[in-house]
Amino acid sequence: MCIMEICLTGLKKFLKQKKVEEELSSLGDYQIAGVKKKPKDSFAFVRFANEEAKEKFLAQFPEKVELSMGIARIRAVHKEKTENTKKIEKRERKRHPKDKTDKPEGEEKVPEVSLVEKICPFYHLPREEQIRIKEVTCHRIFQDIKKFIVSKNKNPEFIRQSWLKEKETSCLRPILSLSNVDGIYRNKCEFTISDNGVAGEVHIGFVMSVDRDKNLFLTKMESGLPIVSPSCSGLVFAFEKFLLDLAKENPDFAAKLVPFNYAEKKGCFRNLVVRQSEETREIALKLVANIEEEDSEFKEFFFGKLREFCAGYPEKIASMSVEQFAGGSNAVPNDPSKESHIFGEYNFIVDKVLGLHFIVSVSGFFQVHTRLAELLYDQIRSLLKVDENTIFLDICAGTGTIRIICGQNASQIY
Q1: CA distance to 134, 143, 236, 326, per residue, from 166 (Å)
Q2: Cα atoms found within 13 Å of the Cα of residue 36, Cβ hemisphere only
Q3: 180 pLDDT more than 50
């Protein structure tokens, strides 16, 4: 029995099978007879017109094929077609469980989405509409909390609190209502560094998927992303090029100057954290990397090159640190004991909120939208009406902005 199919894994979800078929056909005349892919699956079955067409495709792409939708790995479909197909589908769906709301294929078309739409789905709406959506969501959450509290607490003294007695959630108040605040970006962004499954490459961006071999596939950074400032985007592009050129220009260390491989627990680059002051525009950087402590020669070389990058960058980089991490998670660990401050007179930047200056480290817990934080804190301060009879509790304080700004007149602060 001749099986004229192959299985492609590692595809992005929400892709239409027509899009996969069109791009595969554009690679050459491989006589593709059809593609079977459900919208939320990360794999697809590709059928060829004949065995010769399949072999021609496999000769060109024996293990993986690079597409705009990601690096697709090729898995064989053996003669036990029905049984093997079920095994592949079961395994892939177990790794990527579907939503309970999923509908059968063909019942509803799932549109393709860009990076901007995926990360910032409401960015195109007026700010008042964004706030309204959040307000409705918060209102529903408060109502659910009320139902849970009342069902679990039968103490009449407790339920006597007004916000539990009233039908409406009176403690929910509109804080911000603006449509003319443009150019508000996060003052801190955390990026992942990966080779996107292709040895020798370096990409910096946001993780979109992970394949069975633990390869991280990143989305390509786009200019104009609402949450990332042009300054931050420019730095990411420059640092990506810097890491690529570093490996090419230094063959003695090329094997070490690669993104971290999570399956083999080898490689160097892992994450890049960028924080920029709204007040001074100074930048603080942190690179999370896997660098062996005893490898002093490589460490000295690499740190020296990082200092050269910081010193020569057009915008002012006030600080850079490197955090050593060899664990299996792709999240930024933020362990100060593992950080080495390698550039700058100080390991922080200074930002200003409502006339007060705050010292903020690159990993510090600080409001990520500085200008919106000012509007938020000003409203909270007017609502709290803190005076000499107030005992102020600042829980999960971070840099202490709420306590310092809103609790200035309190008799006691904890």
Answers
A1: 21, 11, 50, 52
A2: 8
A3: no
172: left (phi over 0), alpha (psi -120 to 50) or beta: beta
Q: What is the chain's length?
A: 414
CA 303 to chain centre: 26
The token pair at 115 is 């990076």
Dmax (CA) for the chain in angstroms is 86
pLDDT tens across 72-104, in order?
A: 777 665 444 445 555 556 666 665 555 444 444
What's the whole-number average pLDDT of the chain? 79
pLDDT in tens, 212-269: 778 888 877 776 677 788 899 899 999 999 999 999 999 999 999 999 998 888 899 9
Nearest to 369 by CA among 236, 174, 182: 182
pTM: 0.62
Type of residue found at 292: E
Backbone angles phi, psi at 63, to 5 degrees: -120, -40
**360, 391, 395 from 407: Cα distances, Å:** 20, 9, 13
Q: Distance (Å, rounded) from C-alpha 211 to C-alpha 19?
A: 20
Summarised one tens digit per residue, pLDDT across range 191-213 is 999 998 888 889 998 887 788 77
CB 16 within 8 A of CB 112: yes
356-389: pLDDT as tens digits: 999 998 888 888 888 888 888 888 888 788 888 8
DSSP strand pairing (269-276 vs 188-194): antiparallel
Rounded (10°) CA dihedral 73, 78, 83, 86: 10
> What is the spatial distance between Cα 98 and Cα 253, in angstroms, rounded to a whole number?
43
Query: For residues 359 and 343, what is the distance between their CA atoms, to the nearest angstrom?
Result: 17
Structure token pair of residue 174: 């509109």
